[in-house]
């Protein structure tokens, strides 16, 4: 088990669904949603939240800067 | 642990810097401009230079850079950003001055301004985004377009006999005595972004030490101009752009890297 647990928050309305974050994720957390946002883009979301380590790779490559990353150390 | 317990202010490790405004970027999905904007702003934020930096926006896709960068900006005429930066830097030598230019701006119409600013060794930083195409006007051939690359004005691919050779302007200006640090980077993967950020930070630090002109090229994609989806355009860039535009430092501390 990972010692850290992460989570990302995607600003859905600003996401352009470019998918650059998907291959950047080392643990395959992110996928594009089937639904679209107000602009008609399939926004990115956490499809597999348990695997997220909060490494920030997705947020670093996001051209539109729509991803915020949170991380906590696991105590148990 | 529940996600709601993780998403709290005290656990935040990364979010968009405050120096990027909340305006929605006008770039196409997956365009490297957004990432390049953000890392430049992150560096200025980390160095505490927000109120002491003047950026020069070019003409091209990034013409609206002043809408996205929350610092003082000037919008220059097409290709004239290094000339405007020269004037700004000579008027306020203690300000950090940088230009942000695309390849149509810097390597085509602005070649004279670029080369002479570099040759004079103006103490500015030039950030050059190279995607090998005129993205804003509809994907026409640029001086940096690769051999055989299809664009709207070279639909059968760039023919070197008719259209000339692609221009490696970064190698060209690295030969000039006025440049102190010249580097070529990319922003398509997390590792590349971190490296590019280091290079641009180094460029700004050298400028603060008044050592000469610093120049960082960022090889980027243009998925609309190249007619590819964003992820595929990044792969195309790795396979085709990088062998010609090789990443890495070209000139460090005023000496060419062999």
Could you provide a short overview of the structure?
The complex is a heterodimer of chains A (76) and B (258). With 76 residues, chain A is α+β, with helices and mostly antiparallel strands.
Q: How would you explain this protein's 3D organization?
A:
The complex is a heterodimer of chains A (76) and B (258). Chain A has 76 residues and is an alpha+beta fold. Chain A has a single domain (4-73), classed as 2-Layer Sandwich (Alpha-Beta Plaits). Chain A is built from 2 helices and 4 strands; from the N terminus they run βαββαβ. Chain A has helices at 21-24, 57-61; strands spanning 4-10, 30-32, 44-46, 67-73. Chain A has a two-stranded antiparallel sheet. In chain A, strands 2-3 form a two-stranded antiparallel sheet. Chain A is elongated, with a radius of gyration of 12 Å. The N and C termini of chain A lie close together (10 Å). Chain B has helices at residues 3-6, 32-46, 65-68, 81-91, 103-109, 111-120, 160-163, 169-174, 190-208, 223-226, 230-244, and strands at residues 12-14, 53-57, 72-75, 96-102, 125-130, 179-186, 213-219, 248-252, 255-256. Chain B has 11 helices and 9 strands. Chain B has one domain (27-256): Rossmann fold. In chain B, strands 3-2-4-5-7-6-8-9 form an 8-stranded mixed beta sheet, with helices on both faces. Chain B has 258 residues and is α/β, with parallel strands linked by helices. The N and C termini of chain B lie far apart (52 Å). In chain B, strand 2, helix 3 (65-68) and strand 3 (72-75) form a beta-alpha-beta unit. The A-B interface holds A 5-7, 9, 14, 16-20, 22-24, 41, 46, 49, 54, 56-57, 59-72, 74 and B 1, 3, 5-8, 11-17, 20, 24-25, 27-35, 38, 187-190, 193-194, 229-231, 234. Strand 4 (67-73) of chain A pairs antiparallel with strand 1 of chain B.
